[in-house]
């Protein structure tokens, strides 16, 4: 389980990510309503599936390394988004 500090930091990082996606959508001329709805929908689906998968993995031996793996995944996603 993550602490309050970690959840606030994660929320801040996700908000920045959404801000950047909205900026990119605005630059390309996409509809603000469609962009907002799709970002919100996919964020909720991603978080929900992560919670479900995390709950199953937590009971396994792999759960010990979940914070490390999550950090590596976030770094990989950040590097990917900077390149693409």
UniProtKB/TrEMBL annotation:
Xref: Pfam families: Mntp
Keyword Cell membrane: yes
The keyword Transmembrane is annotated on this UniProt entry: yes
Transmembrane feature ranges: 7-27, 33-53, 65-83
UniProt-listed InterPro entries: Mntp/YtaF
Signal sequence coordinates: none
Annotated keywords: Cell membrane, Membrane, Transmembrane, Transmembrane helix
Name of protein: Manganese efflux pump
